Amino acid sequence: MLKTMRASFHQLKWTLFAVIIVFVLGFVFFSGSNWGGNASSQVVAKVGGDQVSAVEFDRVYQNQVQKYRELYKGSFSPDLARALDLPRQVLDGMIERKLRLEAARRLKLTVSDDELARAIASLSYFQENGQFIGAQRYSERLRLAGMYPETFEEGVREDLLVEKYGALVKASVAVSEADVRKEFSAKNDKATIEYILVPSSRMEGALEPSEADLKAYYEKNRERYRSPEQRRANYLLVDKLKVRAKMPVSDAEVRAEYEAKKATFVVPEQVNASHILVSVDPKGGPEADAKARAKAEALAARAKAGEDFAKLATENTDDPNGKENGGQLPPFGRGQMVPEFEKAAFDMKPGEIRGPVKTSYGYHVIKLTAKTAAGTKSLEDVRSGISGELAERKATAETDRMARELAGKVRALKTKSDEELRKLQSDVVTYNTTDWFSKSGPIAGIGANADFSKEAWSLKVGEVSTKPISTPRGPAFVRPLAERPAGIQPLAEVRATVVEDWKSERRQKDALEKLAPAAKELGSGTSLADLAKRYETEVKTTPEFGPEGPVPDLGAAPRLLEEVFKTPSGQAGSPVPVPSGFVLFRVLTRAEGNPSAFATQKAQLTDTLRGKEAERLIRAVVAQMRADRKIEINEELLNSFLPAQQKTRRG
């Protein structure tokens, strides 16, 4: 489930086009973050010389939350958002977007004012009867979405710049005729199969390799255990979590902070409402207006008579979002809706139904579900957050002070030996040793940290960094301990991995040998139903699928796909391993794409392949840029966007 949703996440658009449509069609600028303080000055991440502000992050994050709610409806929950680590996924996407922008600007690409104007005017939301609605109404619609024209236009300009960069790379890509034909087959060939799945657990036996087995397997597969040039290192770490544990926060400090920032805890008056929109045909004149009003009046009467409002909205509203959620709007305050809608909603009492209410969008039937008076969050409501923020602030200051002090001690060391460095340990300063790591790989205990890795590889073995290196766990001082050239790792060092590889391969080999007679029986006329009884499983039949898969209920299964599409219709294939076990199958139908259709699809397929290759090249460029840039993430602030409970910190 999580894997599927993470895959879906990467299909969501990062453009402000998507943001504005979600916000405007929902008639509200929705922001449900739970962070406090001065948002305009808070920074979630620094990417080289650029940064991601809390305001910018919140806007995109809330858009993605809304998209998940629309995509997965009741399946999307706070627990799932935490499991997906949604804030980090959003931030990764924003960082990638900034790096793509930088790559585009490096190539001196620009977007003219005319190109920007044409792009905005072409958006259907800013059109009526196929024509741009005009500057004044354009500004009004942006205001309703909680955005300034300048902010929106800068976002669109950046989107166009990223698109130009993609188009430029795509124009430089060439694909072969063979690749296009392969893509044609992948899109047009189809098959269905009947199969049984024999779980791995039913085919496993106790396996332990002998020393001779292990050595033979290692020698046969030596290239699997090749590694790039690697180093090991010692490092001193000022452990921020340990420092924080020694930073008590008094009740008086919490109260003082609360009073000093009380204005940031003010909650404006808000209402929760649902609505049914009956839009008016702009070409229909008075007759269309009267017809829409009459429909709204009838719906209002039905709602007031006790019919289910959500059901009425789903079946009748012209608000696209309303059809998905029964007309429910996110909570909103004053100044976030069109004036007529706002006045009606704030004049109503919870449970009241009112309408029709006329706005520039049409006629609304409104149901008020809740009203929250303006007020200030109590100290108890925000105590935990304030205490955590104060502790973090204290810990950061103390950690920085200790790092400066430790830097002086490191510089003063005579030999900078292992023994000298160990003497600098304390209850909050630890001395650690890494496993072997490459220049670009993650480091055990540190993670993927470009600054740490760069310093560890720039020093000679035995030297010590004299300036603190920022890591998620705290400032560190690294000392390269040993180095080994690229090559095959010795069996002694990869023994555990070799044992598991041998077992996995041997289990699969033994299972396929045991199933081979059954596959032969299947090919000779034995039914799958008989084999299903033997292996205590069931026969299943798939819908159509193509050479690229996935196979319904079995996933990607590349070996199964290869076997299916080389097996004629009506025949049984060899047993095939899949992640959950082993498959015995018979091909029910095989249909190849019509060769005459290739000519008509060739141009589109070529364009698709060029796009895929361009994206692959761009991702490689962005990955290198990411490795070269200093990227700092405000973990505390990022974690504050997680739904309540189980906030985690990565180290």
Short description:
With 651 residues, the chain is of the alpha+beta class. It has 24 helices and 20 strands. The protein folds into 4 domains: 200 residues, Porin chaperone SurA, peptide-binding domain (Triger factor/SurA peptide-binding fold), CATH 1.10.4030.10; 134 residues, Chitinase A, domain 3; 137 residues, Chitinase A, domain 3; 105 residues, Chitinase A, domain 3 (Roll).
- CATH class of the largest domain reads Mainly Alpha
Q: Which stretches are low in confidence, meaning pLDDT under 50 for 5 or more residues running?
A: 1-40, 645-651
Q: Tally the helices: what do you get?
A: 24
Query: What do we call the CATH homologous superfamily of the largest domain?
Result: Porin chaperone SurA, peptide-binding domain
> Strands of the biggest beta sheet: in what spatial order?
17-5-19-18
Distance between the termini: 26 Å
Q: Kindly state the number of beta strands.
A: 20
Work out the helicity level: 40-55%
Please tell me the overall pLDDT. Answer: 85
What does the radius of gyration come to? 31 Å
The CATH architecture of the largest domain: Orthogonal Bundle
The 3D shape can be described as globular
Number of domains: 4
**CATH topology-level name of the largest domain:** Triger factor/SurA peptide-binding fold
- Beta-strand percentage range: 15-25%
Q: Which class best fits the helix and strand makeup?
A: alpha+beta
* Largest β-sheet summary: 4 strands, antiparallel
